[in-house]
Protein 1
Amino acid sequence: MRWLRLSAKGHMDGEERVYAPGTPQAREGQPTIQQSEAEQSHRENERRLATLLSNLPGMAYRCKNDRDWTMEFVSDGCEALTGYKAADLVGIGARTYNSLIHPDDRDRIWNEVQESVSKRLPFRLTYRIVAADGRERSVWEQGVGVFSGTELTALEGFITDITERKLADDTLREAEANYRSIFEGAVEGPEVGCRDGKASGPR
């Protein structure tokens, strides 16, 4: 005779028990060992995902493909990025993400996203937002359309702050431009020639 050892996790006198598949209890709708293990695995995966998202230097999101970029989900990193908590950007009466995008960048962003999703390609964007403190920040975004058959149901992606890098790039370009103008000015300056092995100055 073989004995089957069961671990207890379901409800009975305040205690949870889990039953093996094929037993009368399992047939009556009590949770089976496999169901319990699947639920535990699902919870563990959710915990790992939450930990991963909370440590990303930016904001993961899922939004509708509308002009407001209506958010269905944003990670907690949104507060460091925008100055707004997740609850401020998701739900009825929430602040729209489009309202954070710099007005001069809004049409360009819309057009670039629509072109990419129409071809089912990922999109990569660089643009400006105005944070809760009123400061302008440069951000980089990568996302993709989520489809159900032929229907576009949502956009999912990640947005991160590149303000410091953008400022460094702008400073580098400005320094290069200044150096170029100085160098070109020196080349176009007074003629310095050489006659008979002797240097001659401007005439």
Protein 2
Amino acid sequence: MCAILVVGITSTSFAFLPQYRQVSYPPSATVGRLDDGTQVVIDVRWSLCNSTETVDACKASAALLEDFQDISHFLDCGSDVEPFSLPNIYVEADYCVAEQCTDERYTSVRECRVVDYPGLSTCLETEGSQVVTIWTYFAVRTVFQWGIGSAFTLLDSTALKMAERHDSDYSYIYLYGMIAHSIAPFIAGYLIRDDEEGSGGACALSSRSWP
């Protein structure tokens, strides 16, 4: 009983261990297509590495980047995009956003990566400590493995005792256990499926159509 409790407690505690994360903030641009087939840059998003995103800081950064006048030449979705002009600067989450002020309506929009634009790069931020994460996980995993090993040993001995009491054979129990181990992953894989419509975000933006 104690071994099963140890397994339950340690397996639950994995979710609460200190974690190390590396978050990237790549620059990107939203491109819209007009009725006549022309593609224009709607907005550009970038992060200020090692700095707090404020409207003034974003405006200063955009000024140094010449307000992205030639951004259309650095997009991974093609160069047949109209130049970017007269951006409106604001802050959204962890990004600076330079949005082109226009009344145009787009038949579709998509998100493109900004590649090799002078002065723009992907910002990387880290959270937590690798050393603390590794050693905390190692300690909890050791206890977990001890508990699960003990639990399986005790369950096997219980199965042997029950087989003897009911005049059965342990080999049958072992066989049925192996069959269950072989079938269970396929059943779980069938029951646990991703939503066919996705979860939104950038993928939803890339396929959205505006009438």
Protein 3
Amino acid sequence: MKISVIIPSLNPDDKLVSVVDSLVKKGFEDIIIVNDGSDSAHLWPFEKVGSYSQCTILTHEVNKGKGRGLKTAFEYCLKNRQGYDGVVTVDGDNQHRADDIYNCCEAMVKNDKVVLGVRRFDGEDVPFKSRFGNNMTSMVFKVMCGLNISDTQTGLRATVILIHFVILRVRDSSMKQLCCLNLRSRIFNLWKCQLKRCI
């Protein structure tokens, strides 16, 4: 399967390098990292992974936000990754396991669906703030949009290329909402992949 991994990042540390190393070890061959206006003290992780043959670094000179970072990567993929099966967005803080990322991609390709990597929020080790916030937004999406999404804040999403033509038409600040709202459309079917851990 031909997948582009997208990682938006602002002022990363060694966790970004760990994420990229695990992806490379898992066999991912196209990793696109967006430097969203990081300061000079945090450029070294981009320089390190930028030396990998599997990595492409896209740079914003100033911070534009995660939504714009994702759109920059989507635009790049639409122009330079034709014929790919899709993309998967990943957080750069090492909370997503490479195995989980791969499983989401595999499910997306196999089922031709948008796949969300969902975490469990019922464990005793999950902070109350995280559990409460996610439960509230899940309820809002269910009532207002008719969507049953158990993890509304997940940064792990595997999507087919087609969805990005729609995403690129919206405001940067609406990215997360759009990614979820588009799942209601008949064009974009939803599949959920349970992650092995929640951080």
